Each structure stands twice: as C-alpha cells, then as structure tokens.
Amino acid sequence: MAARVIIIGGGVSGLSTAYFLGKLGIASLLVEKSERLGGLIKTDVVDGCQLEAGPDSYIASKPAVTELAQELGDLGREIIPSNDKARRVFIRRHGRMIPMPPGMVFMVPSELKPAFESPLFSVQSKLRFLTERFARPRRRNKDISVGQLVREHFGEEMLDYVAEPLLAGVYGGDATALSAASVLPRFVAYEEKYGSLIAGAREERRAQGSHAGAMFQSFQGGMQSLTDALAAATRAHTEICHGEAIHVSQSEDAWQVETTIGSFASREVVLACPAHVASRLLRGAVPVVAGELAGIPYSSAILVTLVFERASISHSLNGFGFLVPRRERNTIAAATWINTKFPSRIADGRAAIRAFIVGEQATRLLPRENVELLSLVRRDLSQFMGVEAEPRFATAHKWPDSMPQYVVGHNERQQRLRAALEQHPGIHLVGNAYSGVGVPDCVRMAKDTSLVIRSRIAA
Ligand SMILES: Cc1cc2nc3c(=O)[nH]c(=O)nc-3n(C[C@H](O)[C@H](O)[C@H](O)COP(=O)(O)OP(=O)(O)OC[C@H]3O[C@@H](n4cnc5c(N)ncnc54)[C@H](O)[C@@H]3O)c2cc1C
Q: Which atom, in ligand 1's list, is nearest to the CA of 53?
C-alpha cells in the first residue's frame, strides 16, 4: 500500500486529519472499524425533525470548525447560530426549576445583582460572592480539582448546584476529580492574575463587549453535514477502508498497522481513535505511551431524544433546557429543549427534548433495553416538566467510554505523553482525550498534526 500516512479512526478527528493532509498534498489511508464515518457525530432525520445522536453544536468562540466549514465552501453558508435571544438554562433545586441568573460565566457570578436576587443561592453563598471579590492573587504549585477551586472561591452550594451539573453536561464527569488547570484554565489564570474569579470574569465580559455572538453554532443539515463534507472533500487523496485496527508494531523503517482487512505500513501513523483504543494498539510497540494513554479515564453517555405533538405539552420550553444536580438526579443529568435552542431543526407542530444520561447512571443503564431507558426518561420529564404525553417517537443512542475525563494531573500526563512520543517519531495522537473535549479541539489538533507530518516528510 503506497499511502503515505495511515489514519486510524474515521470520526471528525481522523477525517479532518485526512482533509488537512490532502490540502498539503499528502495522501492517506484511513481505517475505520464501523460501516459509517463520523464516529460520535450522527444526525438522524425522522418525521421532519433533525435529531443529533451525539454533539448537537460546537462552541462558536473556538474558531477551528467555522474556519474549516468556510474552507469547505457550501458548508460555510450552512452555519446556523443557536437561538441565543432565548438562551436560558434552568437548574433543578428543591423540586423547582430555577433559571440560572444572568451574568453567570460558568460558575462565576460576574453580575452580582441578579445573583443576589436568585433563589438558586442561599444567603451564605451571596455573602461569599461579596467577599470573593477581595481574594488575593495566588499561584498554586500543583493542579487541584475543579471541586476544590469552586469550593474555595464560592462554597459547596455553587459546586453542587452550578459547577457539578454544568460539568456533567459537558464532560459527563465528577467535579471533584476533574482538573482545574485542564478543564477551567482561564479561571486558574484569573486566580493568578486577579485573585478573584469574579474580577476575572468581569474583565472577560468587558473585553467581549457587545461583540459576543451566539454561544453555539451548528449546521442547517445537522452536525453530520460536517463529517459528510469532510468525507467528500478527502475522497481525492484518501483511501478509506472499513476494518478494525488490531495493533501497531515497528519494523525497520516504518510502523506496521495490523487490521482485520490486512496489514499496512507507513512512517507516519495517526491514532484518531479514543485513547483507550490507542493504548491497546500501542501496547506492544510503545508501552510507555500505551501506559500513559491507559491512564486517561473515560465515562459513558446515553442520549434519549423524544418527539411529541407540540400541543400535547403544556410547558412553554422557555429556554435551552435544564440541568439536574447530582443531589436531585434520578436518571437524566441534563435536557435540551431543541425547539428553542435550534428552532429550525424541529418540524412545525412538534416538540423535541434531548435527555442526557451520564456518569454512574449511564454506566448502570448501558445494558438496559431502550424501552426501559425511555420509561426512566419519561418519568423524569413528567416530574420535572409535567410532560405526561406519549411521544410520537424516540431515539436512544448509547456511547460507552466516549467522554475522556481530564482528571487532576491531566496536563502533566500530556507533557509525559509528548516526551514519550518524541522518542517514537511518526506516531501521532489526535482526538478529544488530549487538549480539549469538543469538536473544535479535534479539528484544531488535526490541523496541527498535519503540519507536523508535513515538516517530517519534508525533512
Ligand atoms: C453524547 C456526547 C455529546 C457531545 N456533545 C458535544 C457537543 O455538543 N459539542 C462538541 O463540541 N462536542 C461534543 N461532544 C464531544 C465530541 O463528540 C467529540 O469531541 C468528537 O466527536 C470526537 O471525535 P473523534 O473523531 O476524536 O472520536 P470519535 O467520534 O469517537 O471517532 C473515533 C472513530 O474511531 C473508530 N475506531 C475506534 N477504534 C478503532 C479501531 N481499532 N480501528 C479503526 N477504527 C476505530 C470509531 O469507530 C470512530 O469512528 C459530545 C460527545 C458525546 C459522547
């Protein structure tokens, strides 16, 4: 096989690596174990509704996806913003849905008046907001958990009712284990510069001014438009093979990739699959790298989306959805009201709710049948939103071991990984387990990796 670069994994990371390599005139062979490309990105179109099986959008402030879509021509014109004039998130507390007060920058109340007026917080927390503004700058000599950072600045209540459910929605993780330096680097930087996170968040908002656009973006045809467009754009210079990579070994002057459909060799191999898979593949050839990769824990997620007759639901769907803090959680950790967040996705006369099950609930429920998942989700929607109607239809997608956890010490692990990889030139890692968990992070990493490969080939 004459392909120059072997890419393992045909999700957005692998496809964008192939695309950027192609732009540099470098051919590749992409090995994807499943029948379809796209990995976690999949858009189902049912009954006139566009339902996302994985990511529903990407953070607009990270430019990599927008830039890529613009390069891909038509896709750039298909970008749609989230409906931010209706952006409001509710938090379940003491059996009520309480809107997150305006001005919250993640778990930091940058505007004190709405935070003081909100029933989300107790008097004790409100007093903490006042005193936090006088926190002195500090540089920590080691990584701490997000839980510790939030607790030290704002107390337990902010951790339980804001930080934990927000992180569960993005990382499916546990705030007491996640790394502050990796997950919330800008707040660690505010602590160093200002002491007070409130002061830092206010500065951030001042700098943004009125230029802040929509928080999320997606595509008219759904997130799968991105991976479909990438697959089409890579066709000219990428051979796509559907088979499973089994292991990677080193021969004299190349890396050897064994797959279920044959053996391929190249001096450059990109592992664009989950870190736990990359670890297995590299165990024999590069045990140090494999060991570090195995140390990145993953959690699972289940997404259940229900579509109803709009008229059968009395709830006004007056926001993007709600979060359920662990203390109040039965099954779902978060839900999105798709009609409000991306109105164009849902057919007239329908209402769609996307329910997110993560963490220990997801691990426990993965083996269960979809009917059981649906019934548990419906029980929550009944209790939380008063939804009793029978859905017209529902979809359920299980994503085992899909969400990498950036636990305390993640940055140090990345440094060790980079150092170990330097000893084994030609092995490259791309994906959401390393320097950002979202789609834009994967695309940015793919682009950077293509440049590294070009400079190695040119040398
Ligand atoms: C439920 C959920 C919701 C999310 N929501 C958002 C969101 O709204 N916004 C956002 O930005 N991000 C979101 N993310 C994160 C985002 O989906 C990921 O960062 C991104 O899709 C990862 O892409 P990837 O290509 O690195 O990995 P994947 O999409 O996992 O692709 C890896 C590919 O490798 C293949 N593979 C695995 N093993 C092998 C093997 N041995 N041989 C060959 N192929 C193999 C797999 O089949 C797969 O196709 C979400 C994630 C989840 C789980």
A: 1
What pLDDT score was predicted for residue 2?
43
Domains and CATH numbers, the chain: 5-39+223-297+407-458 (3.50.50.60), 100-211 (1.10.3110.10), 298-404 (3.90.660.20)
Fill in the DSSP letter of residue 337.
E
pLDDT in tens, 1-54: 345 899 999 999 999 999 999 999 999 999 999 999 999 999 999 989 999 999
Distance 225 CA to ligand 1 centre (A): 15
Q: Which two tokens stand for residue 286?
A: 């590069």
146: helix, strand or coil: helix
Chain centre to alpha carbon of residue 254 = 34
Is 277 a pocket residue for ligand 1 (Cβ < 6 Å)?
Answer: yes
Mutate to test the pocket of ligand 1, among 51, 273, 283, 449 (most ligand atoms within 8 A of CB): 273
Q: Is 52 in the pocket of ligand 1 (CB under 6 A)?
A: no
Longest dimension (CA), the chain: 68
| Closest C-alpha to ligand 1, atom 14 | 55
Q: Whose CA is nearest to atom 38 of ligand 1?
A: 273
Where b means 16+ CB within 10 Å and e means fewer, 78-97 reads bbbebbeeebbbbbbbeeeb
Which of 59, 373, 432, 441, when mutated, tests ligand 1's pocket best, judged by the most ligand atoms within 8 Å of its CB? 432
Express each pLDDT in 295-320 by its tens digit: 999 999 999 999 999 999 999 999 99
Residues of the chain above pLDDT 90, percent? 92
Q: What's the gap in Å between 142 CA and the centre of ligand 1?
A: 30
Alpha helices in 78-218 (DSSP H): 112-117, 123-132, 146-154, 156-158, 164-171, 180-183, 185-193, 197-208
Q: Which residues contact 353 (CB under 8 A, 6 or more apart)?
A: 305, 306, 308, 321, 335, 336, 337, 338, 381, 385, 387
* CB distance 313 to 335 below 8 Å: no
